[in-house]
Design brief:
270 residues, alpha/beta, Rossmann fold, 7-stranded mixed sheet, two-stranded antiparallel ribbon, 8 helices, globular
């Protein structure tokens, strides 16, 4: 499709990838994160921060929603495309992705996705281009949340569908600690109510469906917290240890009763 999808000329090219944002401290920080991720994948095949089974749960929840709200031939944009895993499930769609890691974009491009290098604030696509926009595990990272959402909504067709996935009720202490290896990681928290207020009251959209995903035993996610913090950690550790002794269905059912989910999807219409 080429240049006609963009609202301006790229400032440069990285190989065949059009570049629409100037690199700065924020993008360099993200390149550092993506480099550490890819090094871990090459060495041992694992994500250094998220267990693969948890990542698959998160990914599958969004895949299910894209399947529900898309039809063959739709134009879909993945804002924060990463390695292109999500869009790899949809070869029958016209697939586009943007990110601020050249290493990620090269891998997404190898999957047949048309990619660009751009921050969300520098959205390079023409207005009302896409039938579906997905944005997973991105909004917790951005510097200017409201601006980024407006930019994302601007490229969505009037009756199009935006699918957002973010962490929910997350403990941000690790990211705020001086020991954190990166300056910019998760910068804000979300829950069901903050998302509804954000998209419906501030952005004047309509959330038509939500779906939670990815239950993990964590002291910070216990629904019924105990008096002593150590006891919460003991309970969470217990459920990590007994997993191999319980069937997956029974184990997952227990997690849903005792722990809050790690992620939430919102399906949004303008």
């Amino acid at each position: 499709m080429g240049q006609e999808i963009y609202n301006r000329e790229p400032i440069s090219f990285h190989g065949s990838i059009p570049v629409f944002s100037v690199q700065n401290e924020y993008t360099n920080n993200y390149e550092h994160i993506s480099a550490d991720h890819l090094i871990s994948l090459r060495r041992n095949g694992i994500n250094p921060w998220i267990p693969e089974d948890l990542w698959v749960q998160m990914e599958n929840s969004t895949v299910e929603l894209v399947k529900k709200y898309s039809k063959p031939g739709d134009m879909i944009l993945d804002v924060g495309v990463g390695l292109g895993r999500l869009l790899s499930y949809f070869p029958h769609l016209q697939r586009f992705g943007m990110d601020i890691s050249f290493s990620y974009l090269e891998q997404a491009q190898a999957k047949g996705i048309e990619v660009s290098y751009a921050k969300v604030e520098d959205m390079p696509y023409k207005e009302e281009m896409f039938d579906i926009v997905v944005c997973t595990d991105v909004l917790e990272h951005v510097l200017d949340l409201n601006l980024c959402i407006r930019k994302i909504l601007s490229v969505l067709q009037p009756k199009g569908t935006l699918i957002v996935r973010v962490p929910v009720r997350e403990d941000l202490a690790t990211y705020a600690a001086t020991s954190c290896n990166y300056k910019f990681v998760h910068l804000r928290n979300f829950d069901e109510y903050s998302l509804r207020l954000l998209f419906e009251r501030i952005m004047n959209c309509k959330i038509i469906e939500t779906m939670v995903a990815a239950y993990v035993p964590s002291a910070s996610r216990l629904k019924y917290t105990l008096v002593f913090p150590l006891l919460n950690r003991i309970v969470a550790r217990f459920f990590w240890e007994v997993r191999s002794f319980l069937g997956n269905r029974f184990y997952n059912a227990i997690l849903k009763v005792l722990f809050h989910p790690a992620e939430i999807n919102c399906v949004i219409r303008k």
